[in-house]
Amino acid sequence: MMKTLSLLFAFILLSCNGQEGKMKSRKESSLIIKDKNFTFSIQDNNYTVNFATKSIVPKSDDVYFENNSLIVKKTSEDDNPHNLLIYRYYFTSASNTIQLNKIDFSKETYVEQDDICKLSYTYLPTNGSALSPNDINTFTEKDLAMYTRKLDLKQALDIVSKINKDYQCTSSLNDNEITLLLKQYPLNEKTVNDYNNIAYYQEQNKNYNNSIFILDKILSQYPNRVVAWLNYADSKWGLNNKQVSKEAYIKYFNLMNSQSKDMSRVPQRVKDRMK
Which of 13, 81, 138, 164 is the most buried (most CB within 10 A)? Predict the structure, then answer.
């Protein structure tokens, strides 16, 4: 059985060189200090970090510099004995601020020594979301919803469908991630199939609203795209919006017929829900 140490993080910002450090609220974007030399504690150890000299006293495998970033590593099972969670927080210095630059997150789920899921993502702060050192103690996997994963369109499709052939696990996209994808990879003839598939898997993951968000954009631009109407109807059905769902199933059925598609491929649920 995989074993892990759960680190209890309790960060306390202390005064440096006679000057008191100040911290913004979690909703703001940075930890303000008056010196690039500050002290915080992890468990019973106090660490003095100096961004100017890139030094940490005492040396630690959990707090260290990597290039110009301060790395703080937290390993946790997140109250689930089958999950191993590892967070790496990257803080960078600019002027009189220490800012969260990104979070590397990995998750391994296992049962009776068999891995059943492995995930590994980089999360980026968005829309003013922030994390300061003394927030890390209470940070959980759910808090990652405040951030956006750094993904391309293919990676997005991979994570909502199946990570790889060895590990059967999925992860839904959040609102910010979908918006960012659409901005970076605009909906067009080359990307519409990927977006439709992402919407399908979002529906399969029971993330109906985000599925509909994508499908609304697809159907606005491609109103005769048959499979999008089926996915749209299924998502509306999942939200128990039966009337809109019925109308969408009828639209799908009629488009299948008018475009001379193979009607034998119409799912039975469509015929049942059209009534």
Answer: 13
Q: How far from the centroid of its chain's Cα atoms is residue 260's Cα? A: 41
Instruction: Please give the backbone phi and psi of residue 139, each rounded to the nearest 5 degrees, phi first.
Output: -70, 130
Question: Which residue type occupies 100?
Answer: L
User: What's this model's pTM, rounded to 2 decimal places?
Assistant: 0.73
Give the integer Cα–Cα distance in Å for 66 and 146: 25
- pLDDT tens digits along 71-125: 989 888 777 788 899 999 998 887 777 888 999 999 988 877 777 788 899 999 8
β pairing state of 114-125 and 37-42: unpaired
Q: Answer yes or no: are the C-beta atoms of 69 and 101 closer than 8 Å.
A: yes
**How would you write the chain as a 3-class SS string?**
CCCCCCCCCCCCCCCECCECCCCCCCCCCCEECCCCEEEEEECCEEEEEECCCCEEECCCCCEEEECCEEEEEEEECCCCCCEEEEEEEEEEEECCEEEEEEEEEEEEEEECCEEEEEEEEEEEECCCCCCCHHHHHHCCHHHHHHEEECCCHHHHHHHHHCCCCCCCCCCCCCHHHHHHHHHHCCCCCCCHHHHHHHHHHHHHCCCHHHHHHHHHHHHHHCCCCHHHHHHHHHHHHHCCCHHHHHHHHHHHHHHHHHCCCCHHHCCHHHHHHCC
What number of other Cβ atoms are within 10 A of residue 96's Cβ?
12
The four Cα atoms 228, 231, 235, 236 give a dihedral, to 10 degrees, of 60
Residue 71: which of 83, 59, 82 has the closest Cα?
59
Tell me the C-alpha to C-alpha distance, in Å, between residue 12 and each of 20, 41, 51, 121.
12, 6, 17, 28
